[in-house]
Amino acid sequence: MPGKTHIVLSIVLALAFGFIVANASSSPHADSEEGAIFRAVFREVADRMVDDSLRAEGGVACLSIDPGGAPQSVSKEFLEGFGSRPVRRGAECERRPHGAVELATDRPAILIIAGPIDWVAEDEAWVSVEYFRTALESALRVYRVVRDESGWVCLGQIIQMAPA
Question: How many CA atoms lie within 13 A of 67 on its CB side?
Answer without folding.
Answer: 12
